[in-house]
């Protein structure tokens, strides 16, 4: 009788992040830094999702407000907020989040397709979901998440 055994090669590690009480996952190998207390410089006429830029060890990093990107309610005060730094097309991006959770090792075979009932904005950036014990973990596809030109409007 054939038995499917879980092996290390079937596992994927995700850094979990929380934005507006929703749990998201980013592949751990895509996360470069976790930052706190951002000092942002606004960018005139940038898409609304671009909160500004910051200097990280001599590199200019674009800060993306995930609440705006995911069309979630805004926080009144973000001064103690966290940020996850990822890289896309050779450029660093800081993803502004509410909190960072733990690193989860999950079986790739348990990744389920994005449900059709998921918010349309989220479907575009989701790589699937994991059903955890008490909640859903939406896996973010960084390349789609950072394609803000296709889905954004210019700030006034």
UniProtKB/TrEMBL annotation:
<dbReference type="InterPro" id="IPR039315">
    <property type="entry name" value="CheW"/>
</dbReference>
<dbReference type="InterPro" id="IPR002545">
    <property type="entry name" value="CheW-lke_dom"/>
</dbReference>
<dbReference type="Pfam" id="PF01584">
    <property type="entry name" value="CheW"/>
</dbReference>
<dbReference type="GO" id="GO:0007165">
    <property type="term" value="P:signal transduction"/>
</dbReference>
<dbReference type="GO" id="GO:0006935">
    <property type="term" value="P:chemotaxis"/>
</dbReference>
<dbReference type="InterPro" id="IPR036061">
    <property type="entry name" value="CheW-like_dom_sf"/>
</dbReference>
<feature type="domain" description="CheW-like">
    <location>
        <begin position="11"/>
        <end position="151"/>
    </location>
</feature>
<protein>
    <submittedName>
        <fullName>Chemotaxis protein CheW</fullName>
    </submittedName>
</protein>
<dbReference type="GO" id="GO:0005829">
    <property type="term" value="C:cytosol"/>
</dbReference>
